[in-house]
């Protein structure tokens, strides 16, 4: 059974989120109202499969702090890489960018449709199950190795491990698996959410944030990308280095 932690200080919103998720077969939710309680849950013996995290929590610890401590391992290794879907105010671009930078994997703006939230959660859980059962496969390029099974990236001549968030890894894996193929921002976001819905309205600028972060972590010179190239007016592609 998948365990989902819902961190939201508005009791009414938390009830809506928990009720919507509880309708999914095989999903168990745990709801808390502040950052300290969230970290206490995350430090527990039973790991979570996903966290829904409000950014504007009341109290001394907001959602940014929770996410940052989670990614830095302050809540233990068991939940360090758990997918995080953050909830943020509508059109609050700064919060979105900062949230992605500190390790959130996805976000939904308020007010949101419970159906959309459930769809995003389902996509993340499905991706986790698929990755767990994937065949071993490594993508090797000059100075870069992407292990799709272990979700591990090694970079440089010394093959040093690269710390990527779950969504950053998914974007890199998508591009690196198809060198030379151009992916638009919408294609990238649809891939992350496993969405074939014609009414998909994902926030496309998040794709640019993911690409920017990946470049900073794997490119010898992010200003002159070797691996992930920009195709002006079309999107991004992984260089054909064969």
CATH class of the largest domain: Alpha Beta
According to CATH, the homologous superfamily of the largest domain is Response regulator
The CATH architecture designation of the largest domain is 3-Layer(aba) Sandwich
Strand neighbour order, sheet with most strands: 2-1-3-4-5
Question: Regions with pLDDT < 50 over 5+ consecutive residues?
Answer: 196-201
Q: Count of helical segments? A: 8
Q: How widely separated are the two ends?
A: 43 Å
Number of separate structural domains: 2
List the topology elements:
Layout: E1 2-7, H1 11-22, E2 27-32, H2 35-42, E3 50-54, H3 63-71, E4 84-89, H4 93-101, E5 106-110, H5 114-132, E6 138-141, E7 144-147, E8 152-155, E9 160-161, H6 166-176, E10 182-183, H7 185-193, H8 205-218, E11 228-231, E12 235-238
Parallel strand pairs: 1-2, 1-3, 3-4, 4-5
Antiparallel strand pairs: 6-7, 7-8, 8-9, 10-12, 11-12
